[in-house]
Amino acid sequence: MRTETVDGRLAERLATLRAERGWSLDDLSARTNVSRSTLSRLERGEISPTASLLGRLCTAYERTMSALLAEVEAAPAELVRGEDQPVWRDESSGFTRRLVSPPRPGLRGEVVEGRLQPGADIRYDAPPVPGLEQHVWVLEGTLELTDDGRRHEIAAGECLRFRLWGGTRFRNPGAVAVRYAVFVVLP
Length: 187
Description:
- The chain starts with 5 loop residues before the first helix and ends with a strand.
- Helix 2 packs across helix 3 (36-43).
- The chain is globular, with a radius of gyration of 16 Å.
- It has 2 domains: 2-70, lambda repressor-like DNA-binding domains (434 Repressor (Amino-terminal Domain)), CATH 1.10.260.40; 81-185, Jelly Rolls.
- The longest helix is centred in the N-terminal third of the chain and has 16 residues, at 6-21.
- The strands form 2 sheets. It has a 6-stranded antiparallel sheet with strand order 1-2-3-10-5-8, with no helix packed on it. A 4-stranded antiparallel sheet has the order 4-9-6-7.
- It contains 5 helices and 10 strands.
- By secondary structure, the chain is α+β, with helices and mostly antiparallel strands.
């Protein structure tokens, strides 16, 4: 049964979100610029989404990636031990995402840890929620972040704070992995 894995539960949740809105696969394809066949394979659990694809779906469903992933995990506890923090990997792009503080109903902030392998380049066409506030704190390495056309190079120990209104790009231009924390605050 595919629901025994995070990817399986994610596939089912994505199909449910589309059905709740009454959208056909063609409707969702038009909203995300992702082919109908890819969306169908994703909802059947035949493929795992890339970070970019998941970002497009989050935009269509007006959810942060953390909120969507939290919907397929068990209800979060107040204290989340490191070994219990959900980790999602996009092997094809060299991106790993750890949900440090899962979102909870009624709370507006969350913390996510990201890791990008050397040369990794992740693009999101639009924000999942316009006006989303982000604080990106680089812990190791150097991150090149572009938000709404503005390019920033953020070194270890530095933090960039901004509101998300347009597309973003997270890129590791270095020879070593970059590790960073993102503090997300819903508008």
